[in-house]
Amino acid sequence: MSATVANLRATDPRELLPAGCLVVLIAVQIAYPLTGGSARDAVTVAVVLASAGTALVHATATRGLRYAAGFGVLVSGIGLAAEAIGTATGFPFGAYDYAVGRLGPAVFEVPLVVPLAWTGGIYPIWVVAGVLCRAPAARIAATAAGAVGWDLFLDPQMVADGQWRWVDTDSGLPGLAAIPWTNYLGWFLVAGLIAAALTGWERTAAPTRRLGIPVLMFLWTWLGSALAHAVFLGLPYSAAYGAVGLGLLGVPLLVRTVRTGTRHDRAAGRGAAGPVAWRR
User: How far is C-alpha 33 from the geometric centre of its chain's CA atoms?
Assistant: First the structure.
């Protein structure tokens, strides 16, 4: 599938509502390190809802309600199944359990906001992987790798906040020993399964060039999380690991952005007309 990303300087009425959702997401994420106790639990839930909302509103605005609904069902459904199996058996992430009552109602001992977190987190990674990769197999692999990069921020932050607990607390990465290495393997496998399912779902709706919001969402998650972990949350190791992990997609994305801007300036200098886009 051939896809493009429109120049982020361009405006489109269809992106106004998703842009508003992104502003709300950024605001509640900024509030996270400023809170504690039950207030922080409420902010955590708000972050998940704003993240999933931004993703699904953008998908609806640019590709239709049917596509957005299917995206949410696929990602949240597979995420919930993986979490339910994981808490019951320890596969594929390793043995862990969630704190009781802190993130709202649960099913199969998994808080209901957790599958929504999969949707909100995977969407911008899936979009960016599509910008960077031509072949479906490459996009699947890039999405799985990006999901692991995102979890290098997510898991240390939530473990430090006591939202879930691992049974094995001494076989993780240097500086993150409390999170076993099996967790990241599990994330790669589950995210790869999700991406494989989405590869088929992509054919149900026409592609869109209006991907500025999820690209900005990705960049905020990558760079904003690195800053927050390093400066405000006291988690320097996850700041470094997450920056490198999501940087596997983020650095090529920034390079493409710079090249696209250069091409745009050259085209403008020649008096060329029409939108400029990054092509994968």
Answer: 19
